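SAMPLE LOG
Freezer: B-3
Tube label: C17
Construct: single chain, 149 aa
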Amino acid sequence: LQISGYLNLLANTIDNFTHGLAVAASFLVSRKVGFLTTMAILLHEIPHEVGDFAILLRAGFDRWSAAKMQLSTALGGILGASFAICAQSPKGAGEIVAWILPFTAGGFLYIALVNVVPDLLEEKNPWNSLQQILLLCTGITVMVLLSLT
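STRUCTURE (predicted):
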């Protein structure tokens, strides 16, 4: 088995930990924020987990081992949610959410920009770059509209 598979599992566990933090902290704010955050993370995670599964297969894992290892990384999400709930102040959710939500949002933005911007800069076809930028703006618009309802 290649080391890249194990590195991917470690990164996926950390990623799932931050998702658990975000989901728990957003539910501490309100049910609406919690459901919106959960939906956004689910939409992100489905293609992400399929890609991670393919990375594990390419690294030498068989299908069953890759599936078990992917499932084990989900424990990171449970640990993140547990951490956010246990760190909640007796005074309310204000203190915990004051640092968890900006931390996780910043992490998500950083990862997205680190993955997207270099590809945009290397793209030879300006139409493809424009399409990607329009899709990013569409995603931001959808988030804004959902937050207003």
